[in-house]
Write a structure and sequence with these properties.
This protein has about 120 residues and is mostly helical. It has one domain (about 5-30, about 50-115). The chain has helices at about 5-35, 50-80, 90-115.
Length: about 120
Amino acid sequence: MDGTGVRERYGRSMAVAFGWYATVIAAVVVGTTSVPSAPRQDCSAMFSCLSPAESLALAGLVWGGPVLFGLLIVTAVVDALVVRRITSAVLAGTLSVAVSVAICAVVAAAYLGRS
């Protein structure tokens, strides 16, 4: 197959991968913001009086952004390898996300196991 077809499939499969990540992020946002806030009892500790939405924003800034950036980099590399063998852009994008999440889980387990 010529390089143009592979490039087009790569673009479409990356769009599928971005769609998966956007779906997961939207699900986390909806799930977190739909949880009612606990009654405020003691606000003496730092970050103890954050609403669920504020907690989500803080977690997203602290570790969510870097993790998502890493996942996107790994997804782009894996997708470049997968799209050459699989002709379906949807399947290639989904598979690259699954492999990237598995790699991220292994790295996180190794990091947490070492700590």
